[in-house]
């Protein structure tokens, strides 16, 4: 299996603005040695390593890890999408075969419509032309802006991270459902079944997630879904094994073994070109 979404970080690097002592158990270093045993227990052979800081220095740090950790299939990194020399920076990173995707941290930006800024749209067009996958990290409120951007850059190969973080804790489905359906209308947009446990209550139960997974299963189908653990963020609410088993159980009510193989390995491998 291929985990389409996990992180590593080293706290002393100092560029993780969101990572504070208040987050408790995840306010420490997480590196390859911490994950290997968890992967083996679940039967996952490879991972996609995703950025967690808005710096190119962190992207370089992750690429160095990927060069030395065989199980890391590639890195989804960060580049300043408003930089005047964005295209040149993109071309430089594209020379590294382990650089397989790009992600701005849209969910944490002050401007919910950041993705619609003219410089960002131009950068998105350059990303689309290069064929590089693009990760969409959003809350529900960002999705209308994402849809508007996709209309301007319809050939962008993109994936919605964490089913766009709906308010699972309070069981809120709308307007998330309509927004997700609209985004799914773009045939080259995928969705990661990931990041759900940290959006639920601390005493979550399987049924809390069912209507959300049911909806993305209907909207995206087995060819455009991919499993991601969001480790180690997920450990605030569940173990690595619990997250994998949760996704497998929920998706098994919709799909058979061949389709689950797509979701748990082949879709992410094809999307990221690994």
Task: Tell me briefly what this model is.
Belongs to the metallo-dependent hydrolases superfamily. The protein is an alpha/beta fold and 274 residues long.
- The Cα radius of gyration reads 17 Å
Beginning-to-end CA distance, first to last residue:
13 Å
CATH topology: TIM Barrel
Q: Count of DSSP helices?
A: 9
Helix content: 25-40%
Strand content: 5-15%
- How many domains, as an integer? 1
Task: Describe, in plain words, how this protein is organized in 3D.
The chain is of the alpha/beta class. It has one domain (2-272): Alpha-Beta Barrel (TIM Barrel). The protein contains nine helices and eight strands. The protein has helices at residues 32-42, 56-68, 86-94, 118-130, 143-152, 176-184, 206-220, 240-252, 257-272, and strands spanning 2-6, 46-50, 72-77, 99-102, 134-136, 158-160, 189-193, 225-227. Helix 5 links the parallel strand 5 and strand 6. Helix 1 runs parallel beside helix 8, helix 5 packs parallel to helix 6 and helix 6 (176-184) packs parallel to helix 7. Pfam families: Amidohydro_2. Belongs to the metallo-dependent hydrolases superfamily. This is Amidohydrolase family protein.
